[in-house]
TrEMBL record:
InterPro entries: PQQD (IPR008792), PqqD_sf (IPR041881). This is Coenzyme PQQ synthesis protein D. The lineage of its organism: Bacteria, Bacillati, Bacillota, Clostridia, Eubacteriales. It comes from Clostridium oryzae. Pfam families: PqqD. The gene is pqqD.
Amino acid sequence: MVYIKSEDIYWAFKEGLAVVKDSTNDLFFPLDDVGSLIWDMIDGVNSVEDIATEIVSEFDIDEETAKEDLLVFINELMDYQLIRIVETEKSM
Protein backbone atom coordinates (compact mmCIF):
# COMPACT_ATOMS: atom_id res chain seq x y z
CA MET A 1 0.00 0.00 0.00
CA VAL A 2 1.21 3.51 -0.80
CA TYR A 3 0.16 6.68 1.00
CA ILE A 4 0.48 10.41 0.41
CA LYS A 5 0.12 13.39 2.70
CA SER A 6 -3.23 15.20 2.60
CA GLU A 7 -3.30 18.52 0.77
CA ASP A 8 -4.35 20.73 3.71
CA ILE A 9 -1.54 19.54 5.98
CA TYR A 10 1.52 21.62 6.76
CA TRP A 11 4.73 20.32 8.25
CA ALA A 12 8.26 21.33 9.04
CA PHE A 13 11.40 19.65 10.28
CA LYS A 14 13.20 21.19 13.22
CA GLU A 15 16.39 19.59 14.48
CA GLY A 16 15.56 16.48 12.44
CA LEU A 17 12.07 16.00 13.87
CA ALA A 18 8.80 16.69 12.08
CA VAL A 19 5.95 18.79 13.38
CA VAL A 20 2.70 18.31 11.46
CA LYS A 21 -0.17 20.81 11.49
CA ASP A 22 -3.70 19.98 10.46
CA SER A 23 -4.93 23.37 9.26
CA THR A 24 -8.56 22.22 9.13
CA ASN A 25 -8.74 21.39 12.84
CA ASP A 26 -5.82 23.56 13.97
CA LEU A 27 -4.07 20.59 15.58
CA PHE A 28 -0.32 20.07 15.91
CA PHE A 29 1.39 16.68 15.93
CA PRO A 30 5.05 16.63 17.05
CA LEU A 31 6.70 13.42 15.85
CA ASP A 32 9.62 11.50 17.32
CA ASP A 33 12.55 10.24 15.26
CA VAL A 34 10.74 7.14 13.97
CA GLY A 35 7.54 9.07 13.24
CA SER A 36 9.57 11.74 11.44
CA LEU A 37 11.24 9.11 9.24
CA ILE A 38 7.84 7.62 8.41
CA TRP A 39 6.35 11.05 7.70
CA ASP A 40 9.23 11.93 5.40
CA MET A 41 8.82 8.67 3.47
CA ILE A 42 5.06 9.05 2.97
CA ASP A 43 5.40 10.55 -0.48
CA GLY A 44 3.09 8.65 -2.81
CA VAL A 45 6.02 6.48 -3.97
CA ASN A 46 7.30 4.50 -0.99
CA SER A 47 5.23 1.49 0.03
CA VAL A 48 4.64 0.24 3.56
CA GLU A 49 7.30 -2.40 2.88
CA ASP A 50 9.79 0.27 1.76
CA ILE A 51 9.19 2.29 4.91
CA ALA A 52 9.42 -0.78 7.19
CA THR A 53 12.72 -1.76 5.56
CA GLU A 54 14.11 1.72 6.20
CA ILE A 55 12.97 1.64 9.84
CA VAL A 56 14.77 -1.68 10.35
CA SER A 57 17.95 -0.30 8.78
CA GLU A 58 17.89 2.92 10.85
CA PHE A 59 16.71 1.64 14.24
CA ASP A 60 17.30 -1.39 16.45
CA ILE A 61 14.06 -3.22 15.68
CA ASP A 62 13.10 -6.44 13.91
CA GLU A 63 11.12 -6.39 10.66
CA GLU A 64 7.91 -7.88 12.05
CA THR A 65 7.70 -5.38 14.92
CA ALA A 66 8.62 -2.50 12.61
CA LYS A 67 5.82 -3.36 10.21
CA GLU A 68 3.24 -3.87 12.98
CA ASP A 69 4.13 -0.54 14.62
CA LEU A 70 4.19 1.19 11.23
CA LEU A 71 0.68 -0.01 10.41
CA VAL A 72 -0.61 1.23 13.78
CA PHE A 73 0.95 4.65 13.13
CA ILE A 74 -0.39 4.78 9.56
CA ASN A 75 -3.88 3.99 10.85
CA GLU A 76 -3.60 6.85 13.35
CA LEU A 77 -2.51 9.21 10.57
CA MET A 78 -5.46 8.00 8.48
CA ASP A 79 -7.87 8.51 11.42
CA TYR A 80 -6.76 12.15 11.64
CA GLN A 81 -6.95 12.42 7.83
CA LEU A 82 -3.32 13.49 7.66
CA ILE A 83 -2.61 10.97 4.88
CA ARG A 84 -4.57 9.09 2.27
CA ILE A 85 -4.12 6.01 0.11
CA VAL A 86 -2.96 6.50 -3.45
CA GLU A 87 -3.34 4.08 -6.28
CA THR A 88 -0.07 3.47 -8.06
CA GLU A 89 1.33 0.57 -10.04
CA LYS A 90 3.50 -0.21 -7.00
CA SER A 91 0.44 -0.48 -4.69
CA MET A 92 -1.53 -2.79 -6.97
